[in-house]
Amino acid sequence: MNQAAGQSQPANIMSDPVSDRLNNVRTSRSLAFLVDAVAITVLMGISAVVILILGIITLGIGWLLFFVLWPAVALLYYFLTLGLKGATPGMTMFGVEMRDADGATPHPVIGLAHPVLFWFMIGILPLYLASVVVSLLDERKRMLHDIVLRVLLIRS
Known about the structure:
Helices cover 58% and strands 6% of the residues. The protein is mainly α. It has one domain (23-155). It has a two-stranded antiparallel sheet with strand order 1-2.
């Protein structure tokens, strides 16, 4: 629950009864993902221009940074948003936030591990499809990587 509004967090959010804070969380989460994908793409474009200029200045050596462009930009994006604040800009736009089992903002390492596990599962289609099925069956609407990391996405 929102502490700023004077409401208290449950002692353990995973044992809290399923509430209206999970209504439409899957849809909002999917739309937030699309917004974040666009934001990361824009940041990658800006970074690519910087690397291009750096490559010209360093006579081509800087262009080696193109190999780490996508993972570096995406991981930095998720670390600075999800890892430190508990929500990416897309999640904030759609009113979704991530909480750990105690109801607190997750540790920054969880903020990094969450997208890494998600992208890993997308890379293995049967695993991703299993995660979607689990999300449809789980009363808290969690995907496999949420369950593994013991986090819950809720409406803010």
